[in-house]
Design goal:
Elements (H helix, E strand, L loop, with lengths): L2 E5 L4 H13 L3 H6 L4 H15 L3 E4 L6 H15 L3 E5 L13 H19 L3 E4 L24 H5 L2 E6 L12 E9 L5 E8 L4 E4 L4
Helix pairs in contact: 1-3, 4-5
Length: 210
């Protein structure tokens, strides 16, 4: 499935390393430090071709505007039949023009992505930061109102999935687990799913069935 990631936070190399860690099962810390055993080198070599040959485009251009993203996606749709767009992350985008407020600017990005998805008939995954409101609550689970800098994100999105890890606040509580909270689903129910968080491999996985 031809996909594109517009990464405004991490470099192309950082993303590629995370993908390789997730696919090979070699811890990211070992890859960064270069402290790899022979079996780990073999695992990396075995999966390197799969990662390199994946129909995935990674664009790590700095200060990317919505206009640039739209133009690049249109070209990819025409030339490679683009099937998925990922933007990481929304609050790092720049319009390159003066606006009344940052909230208004992020709202414009959100609406533009909604229109882009409709135009190209391609799902758009827009990663968003959360504000710190949940940290002041007894229940730390994030809510729709915690989406940072714009209520338009909540309004425009067809689906909103929030990630919550209790061990981020208390390492003794549900270590290695995460909740994927389906806080909004335009055409279906809301719920949550518990998964395993494999941070050393930069991935989530289904919970082991006992």
């Amino acid at each position: 499935m031809t996909s594109v990631i517009f990464s405004l936070e991490m470099s192309r190399n950082e993303i590629a390393m995370r993908l390789l860690s997730a696919e090979s099962g070699v811890p990211l810390t070992n890859m960064r430090a270069g402290t790899l055993s022979e079996p780990q080198w073999l695992d990396i070599a075995k999966h390197m071709g799969r990662v390199n040959n994946a129909p995935l485009f990674i664009d790590d251009s700095a200060n990317m505007s919505m206009m640039e993203i739209r133009a690049k996606c249109r070209r990819l749709k025409q030339r490679h039949d683009l099937k998925l767009i990922v933007v990481d992350y929304l609050q790092l985008m720049s319009s390159g023009k003066r606006v009344e407020s940052r909230q208004q600017e992020v709202s414009e990005f959100s609406r533009s992505m909604k229109l882009l998805a409709k135009e190209l008939e391609v799902p758009v995954i827009a990663i968003s930061q959360l504000n710190r409101a949940s940290e002041a609550r007894a229940d730390k689970r994030p809510m729709l109102s915690d989406l940072r800098e714009s209520g338009a994100i909540e309004q425009d999105a067809d689906v909103v999935i929030l990630i919550h890890r209790e061990d981020a606040y208390d390492k003794e509580v549900r270590p290695g687990e995460a909740d994927l909270i389906v806080a909004k689903q335009r055409n279906g129910p809301t719920d949550h799913v518990s998964v395993s968080f494999l941070g050393h491999y930069s991935r989530f996985a289904d919970m082991a069935r006992i």
